[in-house]
Design a protein that fits this description.
- There is one protein chain.
- By secondary structure, this protein is an alpha+beta fold.
- The strands form 7 sheets. Strands 6, 7, 8, 9, 11, 12, 14, 15, 19 and 20 form a 10-stranded antiparallel beta sheet that branches.
- It contains 13 helices and 38 strands.
- A hairpin with a 6-residue loop joins strand 31 and strand 32.
- The protein is globular and about 85 Å long.
- Helix 11 packs parallel to helix 12.
- 20% of the residues lie in helices and 32% in strands.
- The protein binds (2R,3S,4R,5S)-2-(hydroxymethyl)piperidine-3,4,5-triol.
- The site of (2R,3S,4R,5S)-2-(hydroxymethyl)piperidine-3,4,5-triol has 11 residues, from loops.
Length: 729
């Protein structure tokens, strides 16, 4: 059993073959954090926790003046009784105070991992894949229980954490803050790394040294956001792509979040992630339980790359679900950039004829097919086919597409409502709003109030009807604005600050129901590109539209940054027309294809207007993509050269059995008289001989990794090359 309880020293040891995590119950009351990192056999508590009396650090234990919660490394700290650092939680009680005294009550260790109804989370398929520890703390005066959940995976270097508050008393309490986890590291000699951005520029990497005090990232936009991904990592100073210790945290949640890091004067680093406490209060009545979202905690001693590969395996196999989880995804054509709202059935048929001819497998009809939606000013909520554009309905178009041997996909934006819609005229109170206040528009639309059960039921039934109305194989689930005037007509005064989280629970119920009703549909989530690229969404929809920016150069950074946490099989990547819609740049078709081929390949262009040469190029690249698709989707990723550091980018995917690999190389601007370039490959078997692109001679894996694969630089901007590396028989 990889969770041991040492009754005498009151120490829990969670471990697998490679990692250890130790918790000690100090003074029989307080769960202290001892260690998380590479596997160690056992800890001697005396040498681990050294107490020292510190001026102005109060003690809760009069018999032990050296003891203070202010200096104790803790697992789930409170505020108000001695620890002046950022607390993991805060409750407000009946008398208005926020003082709590949760102390250890009991614990349970069991195989497997429990499922939290209504919330996305990592899962197990067999009980023996993981073990779970639940430490129960109690505040006996309040009659509230606090459960700290820990699961350790056997074959992944992952610990998951979450907490739940249970009101076993007779009075309600308000939860003002509830982080999913908190951990205190014993030093502050770290860098921290996170992914920031905005629309069309998502998930750029930022790495900085820690400073004293608090540093944090968060979202208060009602979505995980383009601006900050719910992910943060601590890196040892020497950590690079391939070496050094990295501690990565990701939150399985799609709404407002906060990740905070506080360095105190004694160089303790407190790291926490959870629901953003800003503008959040949850009323917990007697008999009710509040379950936090889950945090995924990855340890790597093989640098950032090692962390990414663990996140990839976890997200791909134990967060994503459904029949597409382990399958490569169809190559699609989406009509958005080709037509925007301006299409007819004839135009769509022409596009689909051209798509079929090129070997495209799925035709996706994007925005504009319903109501009076000829621009973005109306009709969200009026989900009735526009017969002027589609005289034969969705079914007619879908049937046509399918006779061409392709699947049919549809764009929807179920969470939104246009003020200019019949739905809004019927139900003006169905959007998020605050009575008497302005309803701020974004992209001319408002957000449906998914904290309401009746609105969620309407969404479920409306989209059940649509998905049943035609042979639909794929759905792109879009969401094109963030929340303002966050309030609900249905909730009483004291529950208004629950709205944003209730919205997420409502959304998860909708997604849970629809994906269960339509298991054959491949769902792709989208929020103006990558505004909600998070593990919560991936639990319901196994892929996400990475960004509305399809420029091949910009995409290098976006896809590279995204790959820190998310595997290629979860990323939608499309080849689009030039000049590019977002940046006006002209890049060759070959490079646009090569960038998109490093993830789920798709096209989003006027393919009926291609030249003969362009058609030949696309056909050739699609053929080649079929050869490498399994590797890209399910291989191990090694990043070789970063687009954040220069003109060259390279990454590679290696098959789990190391018999095959595919290397992608991109050069942005050509250089005069450039130095010779060798890409030092990674992840190969040093003793196996490999051929590149089936050309002799063959090289041993160690030569390719230590000396490198020679890349010929050509005299051309925006060049790219893909190398297929295959083991010799
Ligand atoms: C935003 C998406 O990211 C685009 O791909 C497209 O679907 C538009 N919405 C349609 O309104």
């Amino acid at each position: 059993m990889p969770i041991e309880w040492n009754e005498q020293d009151k120490i829990f040891h969670l471990y697998n073959q490679r990692i250890s995590y130790f918790i000690q119950i100090v003074h029989g009351k307080y769960p202290a954090h001892l260690y998380w990192g590479s596997r160690v056999q056992a800890l001697q508590p005396a040498s681990i926790l050294i107490y020292k009396s510190r001026a102005f650090s109060p003690t809760t234990e009069p018999g032990d003046p050296k003891f203070s919660l202010d200096t104790l490394p803790q697992e789930y700290p409170a505020f108000g009784n001695g620890d002046f650092r950022l607390p993991a939680y805060q409750l407000r009680t009946r008398d208005g105070s926020t003082i709590t005294e949760f102390t250890y009550d009991s614990h349970e260790i069991f195989p497997g991992k429990p499922h939290f109804e209504g919330l996305p989370a990592a899962y197990v398929e067999e009980e023996n894949e993981a073990d779970t520890l639940v430490i129960t703390m109690v505040d006996s005066m309040l009659g509230i229980g606090l459960n700290l959940h820990y699961t350790i995976y056997r074959d992944l270097d992952v610990i998951t954490r979450s907490v739940s508050f249970e009101n076993l008393g007779s009075h309600q309490v308000e939860i003002h803050k509830c982080m999913s986890m908190s951990i205190d590291f014993r030093h502050s000699n770290w860098d921290w790394l996170h992914l920031h951005g905005t629309w069309a520029r998502e998930r750029h990497i930022e790495r900085q040294p820690l400073h004293h005090g608090t540093q944090m990232i968060s979202s208060a936009r009602g979505a995980s956001s383009h601006q900050h991904n719910p992910f943060v990592a601590l890196l040892s100073k020497n950590a690079s792509e391939d070496h050094g210790e990295v501690f990565g945290l990701s939150l399985v949640y799609s709404g407002n979040f906060e990740a905070s890091i506080e360095v105190d004067p004694f160089e303790t680093t407190r790291l926490a992630i959870g629901i953003n406490p800003f503008d959040f209060i949850w009323v917990l009545k007697p008999g009710e339980t509040f379950q936090s979202p889950e945090a995924l905690m990855v340890f790597s001693k093989e640098g950032i790359g090692g962390m990414s590969r663990t996140f990839h395996r976890l997200l791909r196999t134990r967060v994503c679900r459904g029949i597409y989880r382990d399958k490569t995804r169809p190559i699609l054509l989406n009509n958005w950039e080709a037509t925007r709202f301006n299409f007819t059935e004839e135009k769509l048929k022409k596009l689909s004829d051209a798509a079929a001819d090129l070997g495209i497998e799925l035709f996706v009809l994007d925005d504009g097919w319903f109501g009076r939606r000829n621009n973005d000013k109306s009709s969200l909520g009026d989900w009735v086919v526009n017969r002027k554009k589609l005289p034969h309905g969705l079914k007619g178009l879908a049937n046509y597409v399918q006779t061409k041997g392709m699947q049919f996909g549809l764009w929807v934006e179920p969470e939104m409502i246009s003020p200019d819609s019949d739905l809004y005229r019927r139900h003006p109170d169905w959007c998020l709003h605050v009575k008497g206040r302005n309803r701020t528009l974004s992209r001319n639309q408002l957000v449906l109030d998914l904290s309401r059960e009746d609105v969620c039921d309407w969404v479920i039934e409306t989209f059940t009807t649509i998905f049943n109305s035609a042979p639909i194989n794929y759905v792109k689930w879009d969401m094109n604005r963030n929340m303002t005037e966050v309030g609900s007509a249905e909730l009483p005064r004291e529950r208004q600050k629950e709205t944003a989280h209730r919205y997420m629970l409502g959304l998860y119920r909708i997604l849970g129901t629809l994906t269960k009703r339509f298991p054959e549909i491949l769902f792709e989530s989208c929020s103006g590109g990558g505004g909600r690229f998070d593990p919560g969404m991936l639990y319901y929809m196994p892929q996400t539209w990475t960004s509305d920016d399809t420029d091949a150069v910009e995409r290098l950074k976006i896809q590279y940054g995204t790959s820190l946490v998310y595997p290629a099989v979860t990323m939608g990547a499309h080849v689009s027309d030039v000049p590019n819609h977002q940046v006006g740049r002209n890049t060759p078709l070959k490079m646009r294809c090569h960038v998109a081929m490093a993830a789920n390949l798709g096209f989003e262009m006027n393919i009926d207007k291609l030249s003969k040469d362009e058609r030949v190029t696309i056909k050739r690249e699609i053929k080649f993509y079929h050869q490498i698709q399994e590797l890209v989707c399910f291989g191990d990723l090694y990043r070789l050269l970063s687009p954040f550091e220069g003109m060259d980018t390279a990454w590679m995917y290696v098959a789990p059995d190391q018999q095959q690999a595919v290397v992608f190389y991109y050069r942005i601007l050509a250089a005069p008289n450039p130095p010779l370039l060798r890409l030092k490959l990674r992840g190969l078997n040093p003793k196996v001989k490999y051929r590149t692109n089936n050309v002799a001679p063959a090289y041993f894996g160690d030569e390719l990794m230590k000396i490198g694969l020679a890349v010929t630089q050509i005299k051309k901007d925006f060049s790219s090359e893909i190398f297929l590396i295959q083991a010799m028989e």
